[in-house]
Design goal:
Oligomer: single chain
Helix content: 25-40%
Protein name: threonine-phosphate decarboxylase
Number of helices: 12
Catalytic activity: O-phospho-L-threonine + H(+) = (R)-1-aminopropan-2-yl phosphate + CO2
Shape: globular
EC number: 4.1.1.81
Order of helices and strands: HEHHEHEHEEHEEHEHHHEEHEEEH
Enzyme class: lyase
CATH superfamily of the largest domain: Type I PLP-dependent aspartate aminotransferase-like (Major domain)
CATH topology of the largest domain: Aspartate Aminotransferase, domain 2
CATH architecture of the largest domain: 3-Layer(aba) Sandwich
Radius of gyration: 20 Å
InterPro entries: Aminotransferase_I/II_large (IPR004839), CobD (IPR005860), NHTrfase_class1_PyrdxlP-BS (IPR004838), PyrdxlP-dep_Trfase (IPR015424), PyrdxlP-dep_Trfase_major (IPR015421), PyrdxlP-dep_Trfase_small (IPR015422)
Strand order of the largest sheet: 2-8-7-6-5-3-4
């Protein structure tokens, strides 16, 4: 098997068109387990026609920010900004801190490496006097968690990507972020990545600068309407955390039964390793199942959660097919 089998999929998940081209005879429909996006989406509320025909009013976006701030336990609304996805925020922040000596805790989401290509790659124990420290917490792809107290003790400006913190709110730096810039993602936990919604929580001066850069309509009225409903629905959020936890435990059992070594993750995904992971990637692809490979360690694969019993069965069948060939 050549490296070409996994090359298009190493930067980030979700590349189903590339997968269909790579494995044209694969079973359909495709099962996308390559991302950390919940397979169960928040039910989209009915929307008035003018949500689609009018530009979103600033006051309406402000209502969304207020609802999110309540969930994040924030009191100062001048310190939160709705953005069109946390990935966009990462790229913009990369332009604001170009002169600082930066380091990032690795492994890390690939978008951070794009935003800060010159940043030193270190571990938490190697942080000393850096001017800018970037990390994801919980981390992607291995689920590593650094305690909020330890993060508050880091030197310089800290940027914390909390894209997966909705599944484990206790690991968040919020509300006592101590000057850190915190990024939150809506789409992963709520299963609606396509609407592109996230938040930056930072000192008011940074938020105002970002708000000016994004302009008068930073997000769509559709994103504001759905996000407002979802953040106000605490019961749904509690149910979502519970079913994600149960599904992750089921995935652990299934991967373990196939002799994969589970390295970590969150309740939205698991990182696993095996000496023959590249062969497993191909067998899964031939079965119409896309997982996430990594260029830095070709023994590793990240698995998201199947959405239905049919998908669970297809995954189990493909894993059994691979196990039989070992």
């Amino acid at each position: 098997m050549t490296s070409a089998a996994t090359d298009p999929f190493r930067f980030h998940g979700g590349r189903l068109a590339a997968a269909a081209a790579q494995f044209p005879s694969a079973s359909a429909p495709w099962i996308d387990l390559s991302t950390g996006i919940s397979p169960w989406a928040y039910p989209v509320p009915e929307m008035a026609p003018d949500v689609f025909s009018r530009l979103p009013e600033p006051e309406y976006v402000a209502h969304l920010e207020q609802a999110a701030a309540k969930v994040f336990k924030l009191d100062n609304l001048s310190e939160i900004l709705a953005v069109p996805g946390s990935d966009m925020a990462i790229r913009i922040l990369g332009t604001l801190f170009t002169k600082k000596r930066a380091a990032m805790l690795t492994p890390i989401y690939s978008g951070h490496r794009t935003a800060w290509p010159e940043a030193e790659e270190i571990s938490i124990d190697e942080v000393t006097d850096q001017e800018l420290v970037i990390l994801a917490n919980p981390n992607n792809p291995d689920g590593r968690v650094v305690s909020p107290d330890q993060l508050r003790a880091l030197p310089g400006q800290v940027i914390v990507d909390e894209a997966f913190a909705e599944t484990a709110p206790s690991v968040s730096m919020l509300p006592e972020r101590d000057g850190a810039i915190v990024l939150r993602s809506f789409g992963k936990f709520f299963g609606l990545a396509g609407i592109r919604l996230g938040f930056v929580i930072a000192d008011a001066a940074i938020v105002e600068r970002l708000r000016t850069m994004l302009g008068d309509w930073p997000i769509s009225g559709i994103a504001a309407t759905i996000g407002l409903a979802a953040y106000r629905d605490g019961e749904w959020q509690d149910r979502q955390r519970q079913r994600l936890k149960e599904a992750a435990a089921r995935l652990d059992d299934m991967l373990g039964n196939s002799d994969l070594n589970i390295l970590g993750g969150t309740s939205l995904f698991r990182l696993a390793s095996h000496d023959n992971a590249r062969e497993l990637f191909v067998i899964l692809g031939q079965s119409g199942i896309l997982v996430r490979p990594f260029s830095r360690d070709e023994k590793q694969l990240r698995f998201g959660l199947p959405a239905s019993e049919e998908e669970w069965q297809r995954l189990e069948n493909a894993l059994n097919l691979w196990s039989d060939k070992q």
